[in-house]
Amino acid sequence: MPYATPSTRMTVSGSTLVHVAPPRPPQRSARVPGPYRRLFALPGARAFTAGNLLARLPMGMFGISAVMMIAGQRGSYALAGAVTATGLAATALVAPWTARLIDRHGQARIAVPATLIAVLGSLALVLSVRTHAPAWTLFASYAATATTPNTGGMSRARWTHLLRDSPDAQHTAMSFEQAADELCYMLGPVVAAFLCSAVFPEAGTLTAAALLLTGMLLFASQRSTEPPVSALRPRGSALRGVAPLLPLFLALGVMFGAMEVTSIAHLDALGLGAASGPVLALQALGSCAAGLLYGALRPRGLTTCLVALAAAMTLPWAAASAGSLPLLAAALLLAGVATAPTMVTAMSRVHRVTPKGRLNEGMTLAVTAILTGIALGSATAGPLIDHLGPPAAYALPPAAALLALLITARGRRTP
Fold this sequence. Notes:
Layout: E1 3-4, E2 9-13, E3 16-20, H1 35-39, H2 45-56, H3 62-74, H4 77-105, H5 107-130, H6 135-144, H7 151-162, H8 167-198, H9 203-220, H10 239-242, H11 246-269, H12 276-295, H13 302-322, H14 325-353, H15 359-388, H16 390-393, H17 396-413
Helix pairs in contact: 2-7, 2-9, 3-4, 3-5, 3-8, 3-9, 4-5, 4-6, 4-15, 5-6, 5-9, 7-8, 7-15, 8-9, 8-12, 8-14, 11-15, 11-17, 12-14, 13-14, 13-17
């Protein structure tokens, strides 16, 4: 008869006692880490990302902080709007040159001094407002903040350098960066509005300046992940390669600007007032979630993304026409879901056409086109809202998305 113990087994075969090894339990296959876990396992990735996020959050804070501070102290929204518009125009002119210097001389060498100038401009703005200095000092101070480096572009340049041999990982990294953009632009205005109203009017600008400087110093200190300055610097700028894509980003900016202004006006007409913030944030929330999900999936073509975007942008128009707030909230969320894949795919084209060593400049040119489009979309939506009402103005975002689709289709046919 066989004799067995929990760990061994013996049996008799004829006159021989045979020792039989116990069966081994089935081995579990090692769990493959997810794409984001592999991404942040790279040495230095977490550190430079933390610094970049700290420096990027103020991008959504400066504008609303300046408006609330100037309007609160000077009693004029017209003055506050003119000052921030001047700063936007200055950024459109200065930002590409700052990015070009960063590509030519290195991130840490240029970004830190440029950030210091921007922080000093913010402090000068606070001082001018507090001391009731002449109005021109407000314009000059806020224009100085135009030297703020494109932190998102520098972070993308680092990922491109670290993942130069892994296109799939680059796609994941770019999707994460788009989600980070949406998160910062969603949280920034909320934080700024709270600080300016609950603490004191200058708190938003001062906090944003402190975060920008702290984050940039931490980001720049991570020298091991900084892209090396190319010894063979391409002549000229990145404009020649990126120029065919700028109309696309301009149209997308018009879509963003028109959607924001129209949504604010429509929610105000519904009587939501301050409670409109969470509803407006749904679009950014949807884009943030979609960006993270898209990074774990196979990338799609730009035309496919734009078709989905144009279709999704019609949903707020339909919901506003129906007069339903729950439907509008759901429509804004779905519109945001279609935004991130489009932006990730469009920015990947910037990567492909930008000369080596000019990536940050190329990204900044694309962002500048988006900001210009946002200004145009806001300016176009305003008169439509005044004359036809917010539901009619909701036709602008899908029209701009359709224009972006036509621009892309025409570009594909052009030799």
